[in-house]
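Journal club prep — side note

Before the paper discussion, L.F. wants everyone to see what a predicted structure for a comparable chain looks like in token form. Sequence:
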Amino acid sequence: MPRLAIVLAAVAVLLGGLAPAQAGIVVTVDKSAQRLSVVVDGAPRYQWPVSTARIGYSTPNGSYRPQRLERKWFSRKYDWSPMPYSIFFNEGYAIHGSYEISHLGRPASHGCIRLHPQNAALLFALVKERMDDTTIVVTGERPEKTRAREADPDEPHRVRRSHHVHETVPRPQTSFGEAGSWHNSSQ
């Protein structure tokens, strides 16, 4: 009988090692790399470019839980800018879709974490299903390239010119749908 107990204990230990090391969803934002990665139950699932806070603003580091999700949201603070698929994690800070996709991969926001609208829709759906099982981790600093440009006396001229580039943005009452088409939605 003791031999059976030892065998059962060994099997339990071996099977326990096969269980996922980390349950839940972990969304990690690396401000230094301007990347967001998603790990689901210990397995890497997605990795996308983001835009975090530009010079003069900040994206707070830390570990957070999603506070609320808003499928269709507009920033009252910043001229009613569209924030589709918003996942709010620290009062007014959110991970959300952005139509300024040419800026992804470098700091450009007022503090939120911007994603391509299609990626934001995927993340939103994933977090919506397991909101209580999701952790958002924000790490790093603004990339070195950005800091080097801060010291460049010609940089303000380049930045000023880049702000005059206007991208086509849908009218505020429209949003980017899951199937990749524009539609009106109240969800």
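L.F.'s comment for the group: The longest helix spans residues 2-18. Keep this in mind when we get to the figures.
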